[in-house]
Write a sequence for this structure.
């Protein structure tokens, strides 16, 4: 990523895109009282510098996908290669290196009740150990607040997409999955280009995408480095929580400004969190003064996030 400095307008643009990844530039411009060209130019500059990417993937719960959290202990010299290979797979949702490249954690998203390819992973010469747990439920609706605090309530009202009604499982077709593959690479892909990609008519693509969004089928995300907002310490937390306190602890953590992600898993650690802090001092304070005081938390394991090979959608090398 090139060196980028975010000003107030950049942060408002990123906030708007996080609310609705396909919101027209004209609507953002009207809300921010700037020209359409200014918004398009800012977006293009940030994307060209590698500072942002808009991705979209199917809502896993509605798509009836199985999600597996896989943790690999690796030889540091092999970490980058293993991470790149995992990132290039279409069935991985995100891939991150931990603790200076001694570990890799990735999330597999598989149709139905599919299992993660553990035998293949354990056969890699750079992999020392593989463990996997089923991700049972995502426990946060909102994104990390550090990148969603630029717009006022009045401005947000002008950005918000139509209400969705995600109430039942949606059966996806092969054509839908081809559409999702294009959107996961670029969530703002134009309708005409999507039509060429899936060999549909543009009107059919527009109609189907409208239906999927109205059903809450699509999840949009803006991939942007927290360091651009002044936050340098990202950490993965595995928490062992008493089952009777799991819901209460999860609700408490989800309300924290440090929490970027929260999910319930199987295994000895039944809660996974991704936290973002200003620096290591702030991370220490959060762990000791906040996490350490939560009733029901029996054990916490932490690992600093070293790098992401894949965040939300596929890498450009995915095949």
């Amino acid at each position: 990523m090139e060196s980028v400095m975010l000003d107030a307008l950049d942060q408002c643009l990123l906030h708007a895109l996080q609310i609705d990844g396909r919101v027209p530039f004209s609507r953002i411009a009207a809300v921010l009282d700037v020209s359409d060209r200014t918004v398009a130019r800012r977006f293009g500059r940030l994307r060209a510098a590698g500072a942002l990417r808009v991705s979209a993937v199917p809502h896993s719960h509605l798509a009836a996908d199985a999600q597996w959290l896989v943790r690999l202990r690796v030889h540091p010299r092999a970490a980058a290669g293993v991470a790149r290979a995992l990132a290039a797979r279409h069935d991985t949702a995100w891939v991150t290196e931990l603790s200076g490249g001694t570990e890799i954690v990735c999330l597999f998203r598989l149709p139905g009740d599919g299992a993660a390819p553990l035998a293949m992973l354990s056969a890699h010469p750079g992999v020392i150990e593989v463990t996997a747990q089923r991700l049972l439920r995502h426990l946060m609706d909102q994104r990390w607040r550090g990148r969603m605090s630029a717009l006022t309530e009045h401005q947000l009202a002008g950005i918000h997409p139509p209400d969705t009604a995600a109430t039942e499982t949606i059966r996806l077709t092969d054509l839908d999955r081809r559409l999702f593959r294009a959107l996961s690479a670029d969530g703002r892909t134009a309708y005409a280009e999507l039509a060429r990609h899936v060999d549909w008519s543009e009107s059919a693509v527009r109609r189907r995408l409208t239906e999927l969004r109205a059903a809450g089928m699509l999840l949009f995300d803006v991939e942007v480095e927290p360091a651009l907002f002044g936050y340098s310490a990202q950490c993965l937390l595995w928490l062992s929580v008493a089952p009777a306190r799991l819901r209460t602890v999860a609700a408490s953590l989800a309300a924290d400004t440090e929490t970027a992600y929260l999910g319930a898993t199987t295994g000895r650690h039944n809660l996974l969190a991704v936290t973002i802090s200003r620096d290591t001092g702030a991370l220490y304070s959060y762990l000791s003064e906040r996490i350490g005081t939560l009733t029901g938390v029996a054990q916490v394991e932490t690992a600093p996030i070293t790098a992401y090979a894949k965040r939300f959608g596929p890498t450009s090398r995915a095949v």
In short: Residues 22 and 190 are 10 Å apart (CA to CA). The first helix runs from residue 8 to 19. Strands lie at 53-58, 65-74, 92-98, 103-111, 127-138, 218-223, 233-241, 259-265, 271-277, 297-310.
